[in-house]
Amino acid sequence: MIRYRARWVVPIASPPIANGVVAVERDLIAYVGPSDGGPSGHDHDLGDVVLLPGLVNAHCHLELTAMRGFLEDLDFRRWILRLTNARRAVLDREALLDSARYGLEEGVRAGITAYADTCESGVVMQAMREAGVRGVMYQEVFGPDPVQCAESIAGLREKVGGLRYLETPLVRVGISPHAPYTVSDELFRAATELAREQRLPMAIHIAEGELERRLVVEGEGAFADGLRRRGIAVAPRAASPIELLAKLGVLDVAPLLIHCVRVDRRDVEAIAKSGSSVAHCPASNAKLGHGIAPLAELLAAGVPVGLGSDSMASNNRMDLLEEARLALLAQRTRLGSSEAPSAADVLELATIGGAKAIGLDSVAGTLDVGKQADLAAFALDSHAPTHDPIAAAVFSITGGRARFVCVAGRMLLQDGELVSSRAGLGLRMQSLADALGEWLDSGGETQGVV
Amino acid sequence: MIRYRARWVVPIASPPIANGVVAVERDLIAYVGPSDGGPSGHDHDLGDVVLLPGLVNAHCHLELTAMRGFLEDLDFRRWILRLTNARRAVLDREALLDSARYGLEEGVRAGITAYADTCESGVVMQAMREAGVRGVMYQEVFGPDPVQCAESIAGLREKVGGLRYLETPLVRVGISPHAPYTVSDELFRAATELAREQRLPMAIHIAEGELERRLVVEGEGAFADGLRRRGIAVAPRAASPIELLAKLGVLDVAPLLIHCVRVDRRDVEAIAKSGSSVAHCPASNAKLGHGIAPLAELLAAGVPVGLGSDSMASNNRMDLLEEARLALLAQRTRLGSSEAPSAADVLELATIGGAKAIGLDSVAGTLDVGKQADLAAFALDSHAPTHDPIAAAVFSITGGRARFVCVAGRMLLQDGELVSSRAGLGLRMQSLADALGEWLDSGGETQGVV
Predict the structure, then answer these.
(1) By the CB < 8 Å criterion, does A438 face chain B?
(2) In this complex, do A317 and B70 lie within 8 Å of one another by their Cβ atoms?
(3) What is the nearest CA distance from B211 to chain A, expressed in angstroms?
(4) What is residue A421's predicted lDDT score, i.e. its pLDDT?
(5) A70 in contact with B at a CB cutoff of 8 Å?
(6) How far is A357 from chain B (nearest CA, A)?
(7) Rounded to whole angstroms, how far apart are CA atoms B67 and A439?
(8) What is the DSSP letter of A341?
(9) Do A340 and B289 touch (CB under 8 A)?
(10) In Å, what is the CA distance from A208 to each residue of A213, A273, B156, B422?
(11) CATH 3.20.20.140 fits A53-357, yes or no
């Protein structure tokens, strides 16, 4: 039994405890309460920290970490085309794996213990296993042309078959038909069928921006033009992206809906009724100019919402406490301070909200006896005074400051340092960055899909 | 001669230099360029960092650092009343001085070398001198009742007289008639006259939120009700807060206008025409629910704009790189990605923009030969890869990560540690927090102005 002592313990599901302790027996939480109570054991004093449940990143693309800063100031279609072309041309499997490993090191340093990752290459299963974190890797599938559907779904089925051998108690596989501008209606239906058949969790990028809305609702705009240039027929598909998913039966399997910026009242109702959950990505939505998602309305409708960093190509940092702060600031901007979520509300999103959104709430997301010991502690020292540890976590400290992290009782970060770090990974990232830069300088962008 | 070498040198006024050096002779910059050039001297390798001009905080209230987290989730009028009453009841001069000292330690750790501080007690002059930073302290003056005017201005004149003895080449004094809801038209006029007479820089909180607008334009709302309860006559004063300042002649002395959230096209023109500057505070504006200032329009009109953290009671962190990122994210949210300022634009705001706004651009704000050696370096190591040091500074790293800071050539931070730090200041902050909490619990809030 190890007793982790902290200036503040914030269990999320119950009020903060000053001078608290979380006792851990193997992989489980055995006690949460004042430090003068609980079972005896070895004391580990974490000091002047706020100790939280490990944070849950409800949406990321770990394999894209090498693209941080490579895609600045592009409109959304150019952004996604450069990303796709560069990934295919420059980043081989080993590069993508290193990229995911580096992203996980960053995530653990930021106190993130669980990851919902959408991944094209499939490398993230291995990277999460190596890192000792918890998570779901949603294998992506693409195919905007209906004639590709059978081939795409066969490929997906094969990949998933291979990936399931890598599942562990911590890490599982899901699928992700990418988005309406890269997936045909046929492929959405077929992927949903596969999810149902194999009981796989599913995630979809949806209702993110205006170009996507125009494609779905009007069959026009830059995405529509691009598809037509590739010989793919385009017509209006539904009254909204969410209605498209409803109509195709996709919502019936209650997927994780990533973004949901452009959703109206009817869309929110449809999401809530279906039991689907949402990954809210405030930094990415703002940085790409997509706007502010109706977070308050989604929460009021009872939708499980988690916070996502999105990829390092669209953020460019992985810091869930910062996402919580941005979520709050954006809603206060939109609604004023009385209608917007509170600091406690957004800290819930970063923990139990994310856990609910990705189906891990029975084992993670709060500090409760019997749950898995996924913990993250953040230093308060240079952020005095602390009137309220929840306000401090959201407004004052940043996730970059994690002092201590464990997953299922296994320590991954101690005294602010990773317990094990892969030598040379930072340099490897930089050489990948150089290779991406050379590809760009040599006109690579004009080669692939344009 | 010391040659500070860095992976990236970002002079702001000229393109980034890979493997650059900034050579410093005493208090001045003697060379900025590639590390294989420049004068000989002692090499100081700062490593894998981006080296910037020291950041400029165009608006803060350092004496309020002890109130971090003490004023969460209050509407704006209650927020300002609790702040004012608690400050008067609980924080004596020594407490406010410690609070300012602690705020400056935080600021230096965040790479901030120059401060535009609005201060009621006057302690910040001493705190800035002790810390070795550059700045302007604007002595605040209050008085919503016209009958108080003569007394208020006499008091201000006396305080300024005492403070001018504390001026140094680094630190100077200014004045700040606080805001339209705490300052009568008479006092605005008298303060402007004093500024003109003594050539004092002036700063004003203006056009921040809806309650202020209603007071000025309609003579109604919670601020108006509060003033009437104190027996002060209230009537509509102008078509907008900026028009009020124009009408009273305040804009004629080209003050620093703090906030400017609620400004329309005509207000922007009036600000630009007067040569006034703006302190833009995106985190504070969002957190207090005031909305998004028209930053893009102010910049397009040629207004000098700096970034301000505002007080720790309304932010709650002092991190100018984070303010730069928030400024960009908020404008992209408002305008989409093509119309909004770029990363380079907002990094300018955090450096030369702020320096212009507070009249320090001839000595600070860029890395140029002959300017004062105010430098700040930020670690890149855990934020690889770096395609572009400007995007990295704005999006990836945070100001909490400063590795090295000097002001006028004097080193204040080395290897991420303060060169000199006041013992026990963090604990003192915490005991002040406890005292504030006790005051609140014992009903102190109901005593003063309500």
Answers:
(1) no
(2) no
(3) 12
(4) 87
(5) yes
(6) 25
(7) 51
(8) P
(9) yes
(10) 8, 20, 54, 49
(11) yes
